[in-house]
Write a structure and sequence with these properties.
The chain is α/β, with parallel strands linked by helices. It is built from nine helices and ten strands.
């Protein structure tokens, strides 16, 4: 069932980006993101500062999304919001605003799991591009600063987590490695940048031996820390002289760990439709490795556009649309959930 004229306003505020988007059916009409520069001086997101910035940003961001979409707020059919997972203070701002708007406009609320939304971002359509979403079932490697999961996606809301990190997420490992070599926050994109000019085999890091399809990145992070510590003891300029190689070698090991597990998942399930999602899906090393694997294993691969990798409200709106078709609405007593898992 498809209702192309149903318009959903999506609101995302799980971390440090205030986001709003409007979708008509599966077609994206607008997608607005307001970042928060205040965290750069602290080397990471400060929850209290994030929630305050959301309070300042949410009204102008929603207003901008509606204007860019060319519709009035009264024309939307429902309001989709991120219920979790995320920072509680940040989630509260988005949830509270959405609830107030729902009451004021007499429009239904739709709660969205942030991680499921990352996966469903592959179903966003734009007017000028060919619509080519994954076919069910497909595997999605969902990799972000807070999560690393392999998910078997049987339907829009029938998802099973086959494996996940036992400690650090891959995105968190990237940011911590960046901090070790004194790169500014957010460090993950900078590791990717410097890695492009480095030798991925310059330094060797151990591969964690984790059973099944689960991940572990804490040992890799510790190994990187010790390598840099010992290098600096021998040469005060070690990091600056080897920055590109350090980033390339670390990224190579993270990507190889991710690819080993998604390859194993494909072999075990027989599923050859493979997608990636989440912030780390923007990493050039991972995108290249996935494209190469597609040729080697006869996979059909789905790599999201950059704007759908990081936090955004378009993915919240598209998830809200599919829930709207099921009439899966939330009550006004809805509360955010910092931990919000879907069934494994």
């Amino acid at each position: 069932m498809n209702e192309p004229n149903v318009k959903i306003l999506g609101i995302e505020s799980s971390c440090d980006d205030t986001c709003a988007a409007v979708i008509s059916g599966t077609t994206l009409l607008s997608n607005v993101v307001a970042g928060q520069q205040v965290h750069h001086d602290y080397g990471g997101v400060v929850p209290e500062l994030a929630s305050r910035a959301h309070q300042q940003n949410i009204v102008p961001v929603v207003d901008a999304a509606l204007k860019k979409a060319g519709i009035k707020k009264e024309e939307i059919d429902a309001i989709a919001l991120t219920r979790g997972p995320g920072l509680m203070g940040s989630l509260l701002v988005g949830v509270s605003f959405a609830k107030a708007l729902s009451i004021g406009l007499n429009k239904p609320l739709i709660e969205v799991n942030h991680m499921q939304a990352h996966i469903l971002s592959h179903f966003i359509q734009t007017p000028s591009e060919l619509y080519n979403p994954p076919s069910f079932p497909f595997l999605c490697l969902t990799v972000s600063g807070g999560h690393t999961q392999i998910v078997l996606v049987k339907d829009y809301f029938d998802m099973v987590i086959l494996g996940q990190t036992l400690d650090d997420a891959a995105g968190e490992a990237f940011d911590k490695a960046a901090k070790i070599i004194t790169l500014p926050y957010p460090g993950g994109p900078l590791v990717d940048k410097f890695a492009k000019d480095g030798d991925p085999k310059a330094f060797t890091f151990p591969t964690p031996h984790i059973a099944g399809l689960d991940f572990s990145f804490s040992g890799l992070k510790t190994s990187f820390l010790y390598l840099v510590r010992d290098g600096k003891l021998a040469n005060a300029n070690f990091v600056e002289e080897h920055k590109n190689d350090l980033c390339a070698s670390f990224q190579y090991r993270v990507v190889s760990i991710l690819m080993d597990k998604i390859t194993k998942a494909s072999q075990e399930t027989g599923v050859k439709e493979i997608a990636i999602a989440g912030g780390v899906a923007a990493n050039s090393g991972l995108r290249k490795a996935l494209s190469e694997a597609a040729a080697n294993y006869n996979w059909k691969v789905y790599i999201p556009k950059m704007q759908y990798c990081t936090d955004n409200a378009a993915m919240i709106a598209i998830t809200g649309y599919f829930k709207f078709l099921k009439k899966d609405f939330a009550g006004i007593d809805l509360v955010p959930k910092a931990r919000f898992e879907f069934t494994r």
